[in-house]
Amino acid sequence: MYKGGSKLGCFPLVVNYDMPSNKQKYYKRVCCSSGQTGVAITFLEEHEMKKLKEVEETYGIKIEKMPVHSQK
Q1: Which residues make Cβ contacts (< 8 Å) with residue 52, sequence separation at least 6?
Q2: What's the burial of 36, exposed, middle or buried (CB within 10 Å: 0-12/13-18/19+)?
Q3: Which of 9, 33, 63, 68 is most buried, taking the most CB atoms under 10 A from its CB?
Q4: How many domains does the chain have?
Q5: Is 29 among the domain residues?
Q6: Structure-model confidence comparison of residues 30 and 42, the more confident one
Q7: Could you tell me where the DSSP H helices lie in the chain?
């Protein structure tokens, strides 16, 4: 588990059930500094998209949108 502020290593999968309060926290949570790669999935509501775009612009990265399939 990631515990706020402490880095316990790199994880192959990070799942965010909400968008962290600021872009630095998001970047630290999903990026691994040891050069390893992994997958980060973040569940967002429409009003949080602006924060995600700020992360992309600040860090020069592109975050892919995954389709959500639901049965009604």
Answers
A1: 19, 42, 44, 63
A2: exposed
A3: 63
A4: 1
A5: yes
A6: 42
A7: 23-30, 49-59
